[in-house]
Amino acid sequence: MSLGKSGPSSGAQSVGVVALLLLAAVASVAIQGFAFPTANNSYHIPIVLDYFDSPEGPHDDFHAKLGNFVSYFWIVISWVASEENLKENFLAVHIASRFFFFGAVYLVLRDLEVRQSTAAILAAMTGFLGLFSEGSLVARNEILPAGLTHTGVVVPVVLLSWHCLLQRRWTASALTLGLAFNVNAFVSIWSVAAQTFVMWRWFGVTQWRRFLVAGAVSTTAFLAIAWPTLIWMAKVVLEATDASPFSYQAFIRAYFPYHNLIDMQIGRAAIEASLFAATWALCVTICLQRKREYFLALTNIYWALLFILLFGCLLPYLVDSRLLDNLYPLRMDSYLYILTGILVLAWAAYAWAGQNERLSRQGSALAVVGLFCANVAMLAGAIGVTNRETGPSNTRVRYVVAAALLTLCAALVFEDTGPLTYTGEYPRLRFLVSALAIGVVFGGRPAALAEMCLFVGIGVAALATATSGASVIARVGLATPILAMAVVVLRPAWAGIATVLAWPTLVGGLVLTMSLQRAAVTLVLAFLCCAAGYASRVWFERSAACRPSVAIRLGVLAAICTVLGAIGVLFNGGIAPQSKMAEDWMAAQRWARTNTAPDTLFLALTDNHLSSFATFSRRPSWFDSKLGATVMWAPEFYPTWAYRSEATRRITSWVDICKLAASEDAGYIVVAVQRARDLGAPIREAVYANDNFLIFRVSR
Fold first, then answer.
1. In what order do the strands lie in the sheet with 602-605?
2. Which one of 174, 234, 337, 696 has the fewest beta carbons within 10 angstroms of its own beta carbon?
3. CA–CA separation, 697 and 700 (whole Å)
4. Taking residues 173-191, what's their average pLDDT?
5. Residue 370 CA: distances (Å) to CA of 131, 237, 391
6. Please, are residues 40 and 602 in contact by the beta-carbon 8 Å criterion?
7. What phi, psi does 133 have (nearest 5°)?
8. Max Cα separation, the chain?
9. End-to-end Cα, the chain, rounded Å
């Protein structure tokens, strides 16, 4: 890779970049799979198709309250969407959103003076980063969601505002955030707060007049775009009916305890703290080495986001405010993950730009593997071990990174959790193969960094279960390689001792946790990956004398994206695959729509995480898992939700279900097959049945 201002780019190169990013968008969606309908589509689809005002309905309280769901994004989609083309419309918008996300990352990397072709390649890579996916280490982020959601669509808009901030185009950034406000208000509000902080830091105390003028102009620009949603929100507030007082904190705890992280898990808190510490360390390291104003601006964005996150942590313990809690400050952590990814990718571009020291190249490459594998330990270790320069700032960086690694160790040992919440055989193998490949490519001296990160890779692949009930021995074994990395960060000369410390737990983990079949698959994949790694190393060594052209590099990556997309479609059974349970759930809804009258009430107790039963049956559902979200934008619905939630929790037998359905005038009961058996339901009396769900008529 090469770095630096490359001069005016040709039209052909620009077309190549656009084509590459579009291919990457399609490939990343194909590999991940497009989820339709997802659980949150229970709100989105009725809004787009205007269920409540349609002749068929449903015309229940839940769908009536959806008019308070303030986002023009879904209204715009409704202009072209219909029942016949709904899935295709959602998929097209989803791919377009993914493409614009890659494009926004590309623009920010270009602002950081990364060469055009390199920026395009790195931006395309972001679609395959484990740290950005729904199954990431920290989880619950909405950077690359599997389904269409306005929270995911607003991400590239916010990144575009970063692009404007880096160029000190305050008004353009404010206009962009005004657009974001019409898509997702809470993200826009916190982004405006971050922009205000960046502007204040840029102008400083001595230029307060210029700061006020720029702020006034930016505010006017923001309001000029955001006014439709502002008026809508004001109308909703003014027209809202009086709601009985209730504790919003208690509601959140009962409905979705981790939505605002009021009851944060200590293990996850430690993981996030370690990730953000590593991000801070990388900001400081690059700023000291590059001394570029752009990185100073990114550092200010980082500090603003971190302050918002800390505010969100304290908020529930200070006030019981529905308005403040509904702004979801803690969910802005997704943008800290994005900032981490962009900084690591830029670091890799700089490290491979020319005559940089070998250790920096190793560190940046291993940090990229950490992004792919969503592993905070590898990210923090690569940043900390690479920083060998002396000076107060670099010393602080090493101490911060070492503290982050030690925090991870403590979380693993004392909390029944691990650094991989993204579990399963595939991610373990992917982690191991990536670590082995990077060890081959970047092996050699000084080898402490490569060896330690390689050990962590094998250790996590072999030992990380990240499941409840993991033995203390397994957790200690998983923490030991990370502890070894902390030792190397603090005392690089002790790398040999750390190696001796790490090896026994890794070998033991492989022996204890991997079956013969899994071990054979791992070894085959490792061999193939090592061969590819060796070829890559040879290419790197020869690239200085014979560097491939931009067209070849873009073409190779485009071919890789095409192959990956094809593999995803092949193994997933299409670009929008559905599980057997999802197919049966949809079939039950189609039966209800075909065989019952409009507004027939269904009592659906299915214990699934799919969309509401009302979404495609077009019949009201008395209670489902998504009903509680209505309270967030219609607090007067709380008594209804609280009563129905408590009533469903009291069900212990089939007699209880039948009594509840009769008392609420429900016409039918929908229940999962296994739960029906557990409750003693007369399965033969079901009027509809498939492999996963049953529908019973309520006797009067």
1. 602-605, 668-672, 693-697, 688-689
2. 234
3. 9
4. 93
5. 8, 45, 27
6. no
7. -85, 170
8. 85
9. 74
